[in-house]
Amino acid sequence: MNSRYFNDLMKVSAGGGFLRNTSVNQVGTKLQSAERALREVFGFTAFRAPQGAVIATVLDGGSALLLMPTGRGKSLCYQLPAKMLPGLTLVVSPLIALMKDQVDAAARRGFRCAFINSSLSSQEREARHRKLARGEYELLYVTPERFRKGEFRAALKRNAISLFAVDEAHCISSWGHDFRPDYSRLGEIRESLGQPPTLALTATATPAVRDDILRQLGLDREPHRVFNEGLDRPNLAIEAHEVHGLDEKIRALVGLRHAHPGSAIVYVSLVQTLREVSEQLSRLGLEHMAYHGQLPDRERRRVQDEFLASPDALLLATPAFGLGVDKPDVRLVAHAEVPAALEAYYQEIGRAGRDGAPAAACLLFDPDDLAIQMDFIKWANPDPGFIRGVYNLISRNLGRARAEGPDYLRTQMNFYNRRDFRIETAVNLLERHGSLENARSPRDWSPGPEPEGEYLDESLCRARIEGQNRKLHEMMGFVRSEECRAQGIRSHFGFDAGDRCGICDRCRERAA
């Protein structure tokens, strides 16, 4: 048995008290079983800290909050217990686009697993409900909105929930950068399931968000453990440069490309801006690939696979790229537009230098980006009346809506701004809530029940917009700050500022 993780677990047990009825010998036996499953099921020889302690916690029936950077193996902490525990491990996740990949990978490892979300046809969902009711799954991924459906809840009741895993747990908090109203119901849902052992997971959370996660899930009222893997990336040089206009951004990107050979990702917030940047780089003969949510599924998969296989590819991408993608040799992550929140920014730059070799994160800041991001926030949060209007247009004029798609809706709703994507957001929200099927294929649109719930609550809509604007201004404060970038990030996430990193732009300016 790996003595490092045994000793770590004993220290945690003595301080936290979550291994409630477990002797030292039992802890050793559970860790031995977990390490055997790690080798046999996943092909790994050792846990990364603190995976071993987290897994032993949930195997013993304890609950925990895990904060671990992207790409460090959070999903292993619920997948491995799913193979060892007797009942169902239920994983709540907002990432519909990733669920199929996660389930396919788990199935190849021998898991009895599935996902249930709005991307399935009604026939597919019904078939999976029947399998769920028969107890045929040991690992199931669902979106939080799924608990609104009576047929799903009825099938789920026939299962003993051994572990309730909440991925992207920061979505539960209205203080977070990616608040999802249905996540705020998870504490109530957990209680209805009999308060099973729970593992909440996120890559980034401020102290306020961490407290909110524990409170809303009810973990603050029972024994639990918080595992925080920390933030430091000593090989990652963070810098920000002010530019004015697209031409300056393009020149800066070309310079960065030459200064940092190897694989690189350039993040762009809006698809339209990504296309403009792509066109300019093509004119300059700079080879690159592009990835965004409007590409067909097959094309997105092709681009992702080619990027992962290449040692020196340049990829232009919206923030949708990178979730669940682990490429260790990315040498540069650049942002051509200011991100909406420091939490999102830190998660995205964390995709650089995972192999431990020197890497760079460069933000190109145009003061005009602030206004663009404020519009982005408004368009990403359509008001309840707008959502109802889109639903009524589709359901009452289904033939034209299917034939003309979003363009018909845009015309009828009198929105012509090429950057305004409220229509697309409303369509996606309708699908998420089961009020529309086949949202990505207008010709197959099929209206369901009228929308209701938190997304149609005016006060919650205003709160989301206010919270996201607050996060944007925190991001701007970080960009303009004169302090060490690493110290700024540590302070934002509730850690001691510590020593200067010595490699960011502010530290280099100070040394010069």
Pick out its properties.
globular; single chain; Rossmann fold; alpha/beta; 21 helices; 512 residues
How would you describe this protein?
It is a single chain. This protein has 512 residues and is α/β, with parallel strands linked by helices. The chain folds into 3 domains: 3-228, 3-Layer(aba) Sandwich (Rossmann fold); 236-367, Rossmann fold (3-Layer(aba) Sandwich), CATH 3.40.50; 374-465, no CATH class. Helices cover 47% and strands 14% of the residues. It is built from 21 helices and 15 strands. It has helices at residues 3-16, 24-42, 51-59, 76-84, 96-108, 122-133, 150-156, 186-192, 207-217, 245-259, 271-283, 297-309, 342-349, 369-380, 384-396, 398-404, 406-413, 422-432, 458-480, 485-492, 505-511; strands at residues 63-67, 88-92, 113-116, 139-142, 161-166, 198-202, 224-228, 236-242, 263-267, 289-291, 314-317, 330-335, 359-365, 436-437, 446-447. Helix 12 (297-309) links the parallel strand 10 and strand 11. The model is unreliable at 1-25 (pLDDT under 50).
Strands, helices and their partners?
Layout: H1 3-16, H2 24-42, H3 51-59, E1 63-67, H4 76-84, E2 88-92, H5 96-108, E3 113-116, H6 122-133, E4 139-142, H7 150-156, E5 161-166, H8 186-192, E6 198-202, H9 207-217, E7 224-228, E8 236-242, H10 245-259, E9 263-267, H11 271-283, E10 289-291, H12 297-309, E11 314-317, E12 330-335, H13 342-349, E13 359-365, H14 369-380, H15 384-396, H16 398-404, H17 406-413, H18 422-432, E14 436-437, E15 446-447, H19 458-480, H20 485-492, H21 505-511
Parallel strand pairs: 1-6, 1-7, 2-4, 2-5, 3-4, 5-6, 8-13, 9-11, 9-12, 10-11, 12-13
Antiparallel strand pairs: 14-15
